[in-house]
Amino acid sequence: MLKIKGNYFILETNHTSMLIKGDGRAEYLYYGERVPDFSGAEWLSPEVYWDGAVHPLSLFLQAGRGEAREPSVSVRFADGSYATDFRFVRARIVPRPVLEGLPSAYGEAKSLKLEFLDEPSRLKLCLYYTAFADSDAITVCATLTNGGKKPVSVLSFASLHLEVWGNDFSFTTFDGAWASERRRHTRPLECGKCENASYIGSSSAFHNPFVLLGRKGDVYGVNLIYSGNHREFAESDATRRTRLVTGINPYQFDWELAPGETFFAPEAVMVYGKTDEEVSERMHEFVSRHIVRGKWKDRERPVLVNNWEGTYFNFTREKILNIARKAAEAGAELFVLDDGWFGKRDSDTCSLGDWTDYAEKTGGLESLADEVRAMGLKFGIWIEPEMISEDSELYRKHPEYAMKIARRDPQRMRHQLMLNLVDPQVQGYVFRAVSRVITMCKAAYVKWDYNRYMTDCFDRNTRGGEYFHRYMLGLYSVISRLVERFPNVLFESCAGGGSRFDLGMLCFMPQTWTSDNTDARERTVIQSGTAYAYPQSTMGAHVTASPNEQTGNSNSLQTRFNVACGGVLGYESDLTKADEAELDEIRAQIAFYKKYRSVLQFGVYHRLGDALNGEWSGFITIARDGSKAVSVIAVPEKRTGELNLRVKFAGLDENALYSVKYRRADGSFVPVCQAHGAMLNRGSFALQNLFSETDVRSCSNPLYTRLFVFEKVSARKKRS
Ligand code: DGJ
């Protein structure tokens, strides 16, 4: 709901309100838990100092007005000056803007548009606030339009500048590296700035764009609908204000805005909640309803088997078909042929760009796919379209397609270079190549990989300061055309694991490979960190071999499944090596997953415990009608002699009576109790026999897990 009442502008969602005032300047007066009205709003205004100065909660900060902090918008004019004086002009309720070339949220028709003008230069700044009532999210789209006669260089232009009263906040970020993505870090925001940013061209495993600003009782979650270099920072100061800023990273950014042109910043989203939990729940709703789109939006995702960790590059047609046969027998629905099927790809040193069948190895990809389909499976394929190997036909024919700088030896990562997707000709090549592959093997699923950082950025027709962003525009243009051309294909985005897990990619591809680290112990941390911002239907999670390929930890098949069922389930090992007992166990797991798939993928998700530092952690996901739920509890360590480890559930229907049971490895269930949701949400429960029942005889560094199922037996009559 958007309202304009004189100089006051109100945004309301089901549980939150925002009040902005525009009067010469524009400022936030309130953002938090929903209030019934704004009587007394004049009291929310900032104090006027003895010298007449005021320090309001700003919607942006600009250069040249005596501001002591870094501007969120900064430009250089043709005369070499930097100062602007954007003044508030007016507010209107308008149709939501279309962000040229950028992914954005959908599902709301109107925005509150606030216009600001720098009169001397005729540079116009517009902020479009949209309220997504059902998910308690507010988004901002920011634009800069050059109404003057000379070009203007945009040096930084944040998408969102949120400011709140108080300097008692902490800043939480989700950081890591390859195979250890999105580990939560929280630090108090004392004086000064704390940054969370990417400099490598993609949103990165190092610092996810999702961040939290929190204190007891108030938490603000912010994310950016963008997959490139981003920067968030939080800052508290002596004026008792804290700000949270997100947008394109100004690093190597210098965008020339010609007269009449508009620059569109990526859309940013903010969510308020009283706790981290509430923010996560609202973010999940926002992502599920307003980011993920297309055929697969609310559709149950297939259980897949992928050959990568089972074979790496070393496979034959026979091997692939044998794995697929086992997959079909176990009840999987999709087989994915990973890296190694094209060009002469027997290692990662060659062939990227040659997206033609490696027939000597596959025995003919078309017929291989047909044979897989004849087993009752859908066929999916891996591709890494943004890359080029120097040892490839494509490079020999079109060395100019590669991203590199003349007379410089390019940086190679995993032996490969990137394609210069800024060039429309290269975009056209990628679109055609991917289309051909999908058509050739009638793929029902595509895993879109991206395995390096962006370096050696150069395009002869592009200003250097525009390269990173123009790359993203080129990528989005190719992907959006492909998604439109192949609306039935399920795309999973991947970047050396989870290095591009962001809202930009999720606008096109409904799921993301969460991490190359498939160890159950490590995955509890990675998945729980990821789930702060992203729902379980977006997280690819596979059961792989034990000992784990990345860590050497070994775990029971049961534990590996219990952890992987917290996302979109797959298996990724050489299933031909599994014995009958293991195959039976996998068959039972897949049957269980299918039965509870709608709740596992689309239920309301709550994190339990603390995966990073706690004695136990886990999740519970609850059907939207409250009728059933599945919870997995993971205990990282057996402390011999210590008793009474206790766990707590959350989110169950307080008035409903549930029967609770837990699942054994063979698929049978052990009844635990019947209890009302109220008790299950508040009590501290014993994990009876967890350690003695987990078979860890051949495990090293095992994780102890238990999967609970809750089924509603009846609803308690409410007292009249
Ligand atoms: C990195 C991905 O994350 C893996 O799952 C796998 O697809 C490899 N690339 C293949 O090269």
Share in β-strands = 25-35%
Spell out which ligands are present: (2R,3S,4R,5S)-2-(hydroxymethyl)piperidine-3,4,5-triol
Multimerization state: single chain
**Helical fraction:** 10-25%
Largest sheet: 10 strands, antiparallel
Count of runs of 4 or more consecutive helical residues: 15
Shape: globular
> Residue-averaged pLDDT, rounded?
96
Give the CA-CA distance, first to last residue: 34 Å
CA-atom Rg in angstroms: 26 Å
Low-confidence stretches: none
Q: What can you tell me about this protein's structure?
A:
The protein has 720 residues and is an alpha+beta fold. Helices cover 20% and strands 33% of the residues. Strands 7, 8, 9, 10, 12, 13, 15, 16, 20 and 21 form a ten-stranded antiparallel sheet that branches. Strands 22-23-24-27-28-29-30-31 form an eight-stranded parallel β-barrel, surrounded by five helices. It is globular, with a radius of gyration of 26 Å. The model has no long low-confidence stretch (mean pLDDT 96). (2R,3S,4R,5S)-2-(hydroxymethyl)piperidine-3,4,5-triol binds next to loops.
Give the helices and strands, then pairings.
Blueprint: E1 2-5, E2 8-12, E3 16-23, E4 25-33, E5 57-58, E6 73-76, E7 86-95, E8 110-118, E9 123-132, E10 137-146, E11 152-165, E12 170-175, E13 183-188, E14 192-197, E15 207-215, E16 218-224, E17 230-236, E18 241-248, E19 255-257, E20 262-264, E21 268-273, H1 276-291, E22 304-306, H2 308-311, H3 317-330, E23 334-337, H4 359-362, H5 365-374, E24 378-383, E25 387-389, H6 393-397, E26 416-418, H7 424-441, E27 445-448, H8 467-485, E28 490-493, H9 503-506, E29 511-513, H10 520-530, E30 539-544, H11 557-564, E31 568-572, H12 580-595, H13 597-602, E32 604-609, E33 617-622, E34 628-635, E35 646-647, E36 656-663, E37 669-676, H14 677-682, E38 685-686, H15 690-693, E39 704-715
Parallel strand pairs: 22-23, 22-31, 23-24, 24-27, 27-28, 28-29, 29-30, 30-31
Antiparallel strand pairs: 1-2, 2-3, 3-4, 4-5, 6-11, 7-8, 8-9, 9-10, 10-20, 10-21, 11-18, 11-19, 12-13, 12-15, 14-17, 15-16, 16-21, 17-18, 25-26, 32-33, 33-34, 34-39, 35-38, 36-37, 36-39
Helix pairs in contact: 7-8, 10-11
